[in-house]
Design goal:
- By secondary structure, this protein is of the alpha+beta class.
- Helix content is 42%, strand content 18%.
- The strands form 2 sheets. A 3-stranded antiparallel β-sheet has the order 1-2-3. Strands 4-6-5 form a 3-stranded antiparallel β-sheet.
- The radius of gyration is 21 Å and the shape is elongated.
Length: 203
């Protein structure tokens, strides 16, 4: 959240109306569900109405696109005034910069997941023979070896009615499962580690 350019009154309206609690969505549910669906056809920001304290405010919603992937949205409530031409230009310039940053974060996370998966494979196959090596590698992968963990193994079953191909369907389901667990853990101030193997996801 950035308050740049907002008056004190506008800040009060936003801070008193939006939720900034850990594990909760910032914006109201009805506003989130109004987000654009066909993002590949969007050129520039789109207008939306944000209801705060029973009063409607115009806002601009700009998808952060990298190719066909949507990494999120830039949401600018127009509480003070509508965006000017130069502000629209600045908004469009910021999109590819943010998209590249999201892509970098995604690639780093994919690398961490691959390294973590290799660690678990080596651990299960008894390829790590030194206890010190196990402890050090566990900590590198975000695991505290002397704390208790709960392990859940989920087998993602085939959905015969799915329109996606097998690989896309598997990855989508596993991503959704992991995301749900992360959201639950985030709300409880707990940590979660997920590893994907074939049709299985280990939480």
């Amino acid at each position: 959240v950035s308050w740049y350019g907002y008056s004190e009154n506008a800040k009060r309206i936003l801070t008193s109306s939006l939720s900034f609690s850990q594990g909760k969505s910032v914006f109201p549910e009805e506003f989130i569900t109004s987000m654009p669906k066909s993002i590949d056809k969007i050129n520039g920001s789109v207008p939306r109405v944000l209801t705060l304290n029973k009063k409607d405010y115009n806002c601009r919603v700009q998808p952060i696109l990298a190719g066909s992937t949507n990494h999120g949205y830039i949401i600018i409530p127009e509480i003070i005034s509508d965006l000017k031409t130069q502000e629209h230009i600045g908004l469009s310039i910021s999109v590819p910069i943010l998209a590249l940053e999201f892509l970098r974060i995604q690639q780093e996370e994919e690398l961490r997941v691959r390294i973590r998966g290799n660690f678990f494979d080596d651990l299960i196959d008894s390829n790590i023979t030194s206890e010190d090596a196990v402890i050090n590698l566990a900590r590198i992968n975000g695991i505290e070896p002397f704390k208790p963990y709960v392990c859940i193994v989920i087998d993602v079953k085939e959905d015969k009615n799915a329109k996606m191909n097998d690989s896309e369907r598997m990855e989508f389901k596993k991503s959704e499962l992991a995301r749900n667990f992360y959201q639950i853990a985030y709300g409880m101030n707990r940590s979660v580690i997920s590893v994907r193997r074939s049709s299985l996801i280990v939480i």
